[in-house]
UniProtKB/TrEMBL annotation:
HTH gntR-type domain boundaries: 4-71
Species in which this protein is naturally found: Psychromonas arctica
Residue stretches spanning the membrane: none
Coiled coil: none
Identification of the protein by name: GntR family transcriptional regulator
Superkingdom assignment: Bacteria
UniProt entry keywords in alphabetical sequence: DNA-binding, Transcription, Transcription regulation
InterPro entries documented for this protein: GntR_C, TF_FadR/GntR_C, Tscrpt_reg_HTH_GntR, WH-like_DNA-bd_sf, WH_DNA-bd_sf
Pfam family, one: GntR
């Protein structure tokens, strides 16, 4: 592996491997082996792992090091239930600042989602779907709630990676363009109902079982 990779590149590669189950829930992430695989210092690897830990994708325990977070079935349900309760509530506030520029921006995001789905890049699709939701929440002007939803979206990404099917991030759960059209038409109540139904579909698409742990060859994985 070239040591010209930036921390951002390493972050994306590890995240992609987690989302695609090459690094399953519970897999250990030893700094020394990752450092060797990426040809970067352990300090750089540690920074990337700390970022993933902030996003609840990885857990870091004293004397144990880092490992891929292993969400429980209960955590999966609670995270999705929290989003189902909270995200529809912000729609009316989002509409107060909604503009043509916002509509254009989110339509570009949907185009990126569709491109990722077409080339079957599940990792990118999960990330883009989460980004759509937390960027929308930040338009509400309630930074405390939006930050909380952003963290829930990061946790949902891991949950979908661990328990999801291709239906969890496809149009089967509702096309984001439908929501944008509702916001363009200032249909607050219908948009709230759409958001609730969309998140409930994602929750119902999950297959709540834990993957078996496996031995990881980091050199081979990141070569």
């Amino acid at each position: 592996m070239s040591n010209n990779l930036s921390d951002e590149d390493i972050y994306k590669k590890i995240l992609k491997s987690i989302v695609e189950h090459q690094l399953p829930p519970g897999a250990r992430l030893p700094e020394d082996k990752l450092s060797e695989a990426f040809g970067r210092s352990r300090t750089s690897i540690r920074k990337v792992l700390q970022r993933l830990a902030l996003e609840r994708i990885v857990t870091i325990a004293p004397n144990k090091g880092a490992q891929v977070n292993q969400p429980s079935e209960q955590e999966a349900r609670e995270v999705l239930d929290s989003r189902i309760m909270l995200e529809p509530l912000l729609i009316s506030e989002v509409l107060k600042s909604w503009s043509k520029a916002n509509s254009k921006h989110f339509r570009h995001m949907v185009a990126a989602e569709r491109k990722a789905e077409k080339i079957e890049d599940q990792a990118a699709l999960i990330q883009l779907t989460a980004q759509f939701h937390y960027e929308l929440a930040h338009l509400s002007g309630n930074s405390v709630m939006a930050d909380f939803i952003e963290q829930l979206c990061y946790r949902s990404s891991l949950i979908i990676a661990a328990f999801g099917t291709r239906h969890s991030v496809s149009c089967d759960c509702g096309d984001h363009l439908e929501l944008i059209d509702l916001l363009d038409n200032n249909e607050s109540e219908v948009a709230q109902q759409w958001m609730k139904r969309h998140l409930m579909h994602i929750k119902s698409s999950l297959k709540l079982n834990i993957s078996d742990d496996q031995k990881i060859n980091f050199q081979q994985l990141f070569s």
